[in-house]
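Tutorial, part two.
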Amino acid sequence: MNLDKFYSTDIGVNANPFYSTVSKYKNSTLVDLGVRSGISSEIMLLDSYLNNNKVLGVDVDWSMLNDSVGSHPNYTTILGDSSTVGKYWDKKISGLFVDTFHIKEQVLCELYFWYPHIEEGGFIAFHDTNWPQGQHDRYGGITWDRVEEGVKLFFNVDSLNYEDSFIKMDNYPESWGMTIVTIKNKKDYISQVKDWEEIFRGRNQLIQLFWNDENKGDVRIDLIHTI
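Running the prediction step on this input gives:
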């Protein structure tokens, strides 16, 4: 598969390991969190006819989506906040691509709701796990912790290259970084994280900087106060 067209995007050369991972799955449901123009969704749709895969994109704004992705018969768009959609999700999925806010609390809340739905043998791919040293998102006067900090905390690892009997984690540092976690055997990582209340307070604070009842329109966004 020639993936050269993706090298000029923010996924860059990491299109190769991402496609290599996705192409292993057949008769599967794959979910893309944070779609924007649809680069990640387009990669997930490659060979979807042949492999009988369905791809679902979740985003709060579909105005930037490439028509060739949105019109693909194997693609479904879902209007909503990534954690909120995960909160009400009730089906198993084989793969998850995470690329919304590049913030620790956001990633952890997405994992809280989506990880239980990942089938054994499935994968989770995280974009933006290798930002330059010292780079952080800053919103509302707050310097927020980064994506890889959330990934490490959830899976209780010190390195983004790691393997045990439960997961295989591979990090690809170029093009802002991508980390792909293969779920070899399911494990209850959620109960190992002890400060979920604080994490959700941070996520709610972040969400409220951007959306409220006056501006969110038809986008379903919940503030989770108790878990």
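The helical segments are 15-22, 39-45, 48-51, 67-70, 82-88, 104-114, 147-155, 196-208. In part three we will examine how such features are distributed along the chain.
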